[in-house]
Amino acid sequence: MGRVLAISSHVVRGHVGLAASVPALQRLGHEVWALPTVVLASRPGLGRLERRDTPAAELAAMLEALEADGCWPMLDGVLTGYFVTPEAVAAAARALERIRQARRGVRILVDPVLGDGGQLYVREDTALAIRRDLLPLADVATPNLTELAWLAGAGAGAVGAGEAEALARRLGVPTVVVTSAAESAAGVATLLVTADRSLAHSTPRRAGIPNGAGDLLAGLLLGNLLDGRTAEAALEASLAALDRVLAASAGGEVLQLAAL
Fold it and tell me: How many structural domains does the chain have?
């Protein structure tokens, strides 16, 4: 069993952000310390949008309290996801630097939640802070194609599947997993890029998938890596579990995590 600090959004209804990644990590046997950057009643597009952002100062205070309690040497992994402001990103980055100092070998996964479909849906200064402050600390990054292009300095427009490997190598992260790197009528390819190789894993294409698949995959991937699997084996196991959930969730409003 490992211990993971997870910093991202949380929804009360459904499974997006921490509500997806935390159950995935727990299902794999890991203890999770979850710190929300924002709490929403439900995901955007599902019912009334009610949200409460966690001010950066409060986020920093929570992290400082954990450090003061001597928690950093206990950690085996860190997962970061959605951030509202660059100040919140900076608070997380400061904590990650201190965690690295306190716990050699800690595994940091940055899920750079920036946008999709060729558009950013976070503030540009927040996206810049993630690229500048968090990516250099990551052992693993899990962008989609839009996020990959923007982080690699190619803008947030359309990216061809053939470009993804080269863009992933620009990030300077040891392991990059590009979600939905290529799509066809039959399947969806997820691209794994490491220092010395790249390979694509295909899973069935599912119609009507609820939000949260990327958050779920990030949690599964980190959990499988902490279990000692290689990057390739961890991705294979994570995609298999993800596909079970997507098959059970197709056409629904929220992910059905019971399928994990």
Answer: 1
- 123: tokens are 């503030």
**Does 260 reside within a domain?**
no
Between CA 20 and CA 24 the distance in angstroms is 7
Read off the amino acid at residue 93: A
**CA 23 to CA 32: how far, in whole Å?**
9
Residue reference for tokens 């799509």? 183
What was the pLDDT predicted at 182? 86
Confidence (pLDDT) at 259: 97
Whether 241 is covered by a domain: the verdict is: yes
Are the beta carbons of 247 and 207 closer than 8 angstroms?
no
Q: Which phi-psi region, left, alpha or beta, contains residue 207 (left: φ > 0; alpha: ψ -120 to 50)? A: beta
What single letter denotes the amino acid at residue 189? Answer: A
Q: Could you give the CA distance from residue 43 to residue 210 in angstroms, rounded to a whole number? A: 10
Query: CA separation (Å) from 216 to 45, 159, 172?
Result: 19, 23, 24
pLDDT by residue (tens digit) across 47-102?
Answer: 888 999 999 999 999 999 999 999 999 999 999 999 999 999 999 999 999 999 99
Domain, as residue range, for 18 = 3-255
Does 41 map to a domain? yes
Assign residue 82 the CATH number of its domain: 3.40.1190.20
Q: Where are the beta strands (DSSP E) in 51-197?
A: 51-53, 77-80, 107-110, 115-116, 119-120, 140-141, 175-183, 187-193
| 8 A C-beta contact, residue 225 and residue 25 | no
